Amino acid sequence: MNDRSHFRLLVLHVLVASLLVSLAGRLWYLQVLNGDRYQRVAAENRTRDIVVPAVRGQILDDVGRPLVRNRTALVVSVDRTMLSRQPDGGTAMLKRLAKVLGTSQRNLAERVRLCAPGIKRPCWPGSPYQPIPVDDRVSMRVALQIMERQEDFPGVTAQVQAVRQFPRAAGAGAAQALGYLQPITQDELDRRKGLKVTGFSGVDLIGRDGLEGRYDADLRGSPGVRTVMVDSKGRVTGTAREQPPVPGNNLITSIDARVQGIVEKSLDRAVDRARDLGNKGDAAAGVVLDVRTGRIIALASYPTYDPSIWAGGVTQEQYDRLLGAGNGQPLISRAVQGQFAPGSTFKISSVAAAVGAGNSLNGTYPCPGSYRVGDRAFRNFEGEAHGPMNLHKGLVVSCDTIFYKFAYEEWLRDGGTRPAKKPKDPMVKMAEGHGFGKPTGIDLPNESTGRIPDRAWKKQYWETTKKAVCKAAKNGYPDVARTDPSRAAYLKAIAAENCADGYIWRAGDAANLSVGQGDVLVTPLQLARAYAALANGGTLWEPRLGRAVVAPDGTLVREIDPVKAGRLPVSGRVLSYIRGALADVPKNGTAAGAFNGFDFDKLSVAGKTGTAEVFGKKDTSWFASFAPAKRPRYAVVVMVSQAGTGGQVAAPAVREIYEGIYGLGDVKEAALPKGVPPAKLPEIRPDGTVEAPSGYSLGPIAPPSGEPTTAPRKSG
Description:
The chain is α+β, with helices and mostly antiparallel strands.
């Protein structure tokens, strides 16, 4: 062997040795340094985790009647990821599945596509990585057919799930207050790290509105995990370990289903009454509030809808009906989110402001048919004059001109169009002190704030609208001029005035505010809270629907205590005077016709009518009240938009509600025994059955079934 061959052999030996060293080092790295990790990975290749959904908690009324509960259903879901991996994108499989389910391939394809701008419903608004439910009403035969032919239906599952049911106990719908569930989105999954999903179940659905949204964390529970062993073909060979799910807690509310049903029926009849009078009657709201605690006994909105449409996916037509103005936007709660001019119901604040500004509580004031504010005459309702009177009668007959005079004189004292450095604006401040213009703090999402216009708001609004107003001042209102030339000329003159100096707080602004008109907006809930504070001696409560959270075995998790938000800036003497005046309104005032024949010996009712003018629409009808007048327990407010006067439409509805609560008139049984809500919580037993508090009854309640029992609601 020559030196050259020897060198080559040496290089080869070194190369082989280095390769052996590298291989040994790699084996050491894999088997020793990272051995535990790869052992776990190998084990995971032989196991699969199945997330077991937790049953969502019920929502119950104050005596234990179910407002929302669960029914069992066989749910068929499609794994979109598995679908996309098929050669034809899953078209053939969807055709086979459609035939089994008795639907069309197109319908299934629409249900499994992802929602996006421009995509009409049905579509999937949830995560693209979780199974998508396509049918929640399949029979056991169909489910078995799918599961036994997995080679024909890859990625399709059929599982027993809990689906939300709305039993309408005692006729109570409360759709807007209860809210609804929707699939959790990918953004929410990203924010909630570690959240497990299973498809159509309480794990993946999240409360979107109402109590379902506000108390979602309490109601949803915790999912379980079952780890199963699988072979090389993915077939289950056994269970490795299992962590059971923890059911969600139950929410007990202060809603009384019987009172809620009464309020909803009264709104239906009020709308019919408005239409019989030749008005449109397009929306309504009703609130029953416990003045002593701030708890809500009933919260209703018209038009309403059947919340069971969310189960299994909502179609585009259904979704459009929920949000469409042509259908009255039934998804919106008029009680909490609707904003309306309150009309004369607002005068409880204006009386307190006038007296606080120095006007005598026991004085006598003229009530002419009209009163001149600056260069414009402001009229009483229908121009009627009542002569001199005290404030008591001014509230009973609802004299506007007394309040115009108060507001105009206060405006002048503040400097008129050239206000003092710190104007007092007593009516604005008193309205804010009554809780108007800001949220009440109710335990529901998306509450509206209402609006109390003041100098700062007027300037801001002018800056926002100046361009459009000045354009109208120049071009006029040609569309209006075609049918009403005089009206068009008036609007053009107003536009010219506002274009020039619409930022100024004018005398007319102050006068309109004093009678709840102009730019004043309140929600029915805000008005009910203000009347509750008037009734209870001045305490403003944060309204509450939730009363307690209770575990599935009946253990009390926590009580939801009422919260005092503040006090009315009004003396007890003034509050007492106003209460006395309002007690005469149903007897011989503007609501006397509605309460004709009412049994005042058994129940004294105090209240105030409101008829709010709305430009281009019919009047908004209001009646705000409390009872019993001397020892108040409830504040009841009803509003019907485009309906007519408060005495004609809203007041009769309030009368029906009181008769239902107390069992008066033609009502044979009081909704609330002895007229009071239960002091104690209903008892939830470990087996899930419920016992009402002593003295109260659950009444007949249909058991949960495989089919929803909700009835379609009248939606106008």
